[in-house]
Amino acid sequence: MTLSVTGLSVAKSGTPILTDVSFSAPAGRITGLIGPNGAGKSTLLAALLGLLQTEGSVRFEGHDLPNLRRRDRAQLLAFVEQSAATEERLSVRDVVALGRIPFEAAWQSEPSPNDQAIIAQALADTGTTGFSARRFTTLSGGEQQRVHVARALAQQPRLLLLDEPTSHLDIRSQLQLLTLLRQKAEAGMSIFVALHDLNLAARFCDHLVVLANGRTTAEGAPTDVLTPELLRTVYGVAARLVPDSANGHPLIVLDEAIAEDHWQLTD
Ligand SMILES: Nc1ncnc2c1ncn2[C@@H]1O[C@H](COP(=O)(O)OP(=O)(O)OP(=O)(O)O)[C@@H](O)[C@H]1O
Q1: Which of 32, 135, 137, 170 lies deepest, with the highest CB count within 10 Å?
Q2: pLDDT in tens, 195-216
Q3: Global pTM?
Q4: Pairing verdict, β 207-212 and 215-220
């Protein structure tokens, strides 16, 4: 197991957000983080990045992740945020080049030829080469999301964390992104991705971690984790799981929302 989280707890403004979260994400695989709105998925990703005060342990390939120096952590892992503000004047290529900063020498002002090749590959992988000279801020939401993935890939991370990377993508781009992530996993990258689309999670993830109310409630292969019982208790829906005749992956057919208080926020 490559990413190992044990007894992770986080509080914000005195309110517990994550409580005793424990799971393992296998090396060179895609692990999906699923759970309803407010379950704590983004908080968990921030905790893995060392951005929050935490209790518990987060280990990746023998490293104590939250306590690594920033530059060492950036050489090991990359993060694709749901949406990230970027400096107004930067071109798409400049944004992707940011992924090489953790590897640059202090005196380096331009990306090296090797860095240039890595940046070009990241642009090509994400289908963003065609607008690499454009200002980043002129791109559509889906285009910007692909560029953020390119920037993270340019970091050549051992561990790639993504928070809802398909939220702005059309269905073709969703398939292309998850296919790209599969290729990266097969090449040895460990991928931990928060997803809302459970059918995409069932099809592309090797392993799922389910968060509900800040706690891990299930973990395992998609076929074992995604059950009508889990969808009822965690998401408050009546649903059926139908095997996809093409590949056997479970497909979720939603019948109805059964938890009437689902939209009521609690204090
Ligand atoms: N400063 C804070 N004080 C109290 N509660 C907070 C604070 N910040 C976040 N929360 C709560 O923490 C919970 C977890 O938030 P988080 O953004 O991690 O959830 P999520 O699973 O990523 O949700 P979504 O699927 O909607 O993006 C939410 O209920 C949120 O309202």
Answers
A1: 32
A2: 999 999 999 999 999 999 999 9
A3: 0.93
A4: antiparallel
